[in-house]
Amino acid sequence: MSKVNIDNLVINSPFEEPKRHFKFNARGITEEIADSRRRSEYAS
Question: Could you give the C-alpha distances from 10 to 4, 16, 18, 26, 32, in angstroms and in order?
């Protein structure tokens, strides 16, 4: 897994429904932000 340095992890308001999330790829989290709510997924 590659290391990603994200300076500000808080990108949503604690008082509203989440509207953005950090994208993931096969290697893990990226610094790219998507303007949508992330799907709920569970790895088995």
Answer: 15, 13, 11, 23, 14
pLDDT in tens, 14-25: 999 999 999 988
The CA distance from 31 to 20, in Å, is: 12
43: tokens are: 């790895």
Single out the residue of 39, 35, 9, 10 nearest to residue 20, CA to CA.
35
Give the pTM.
0.71
Beta bridge partners of 21: 34
Nearest to 38 by CA among 25, 22, 26: 22
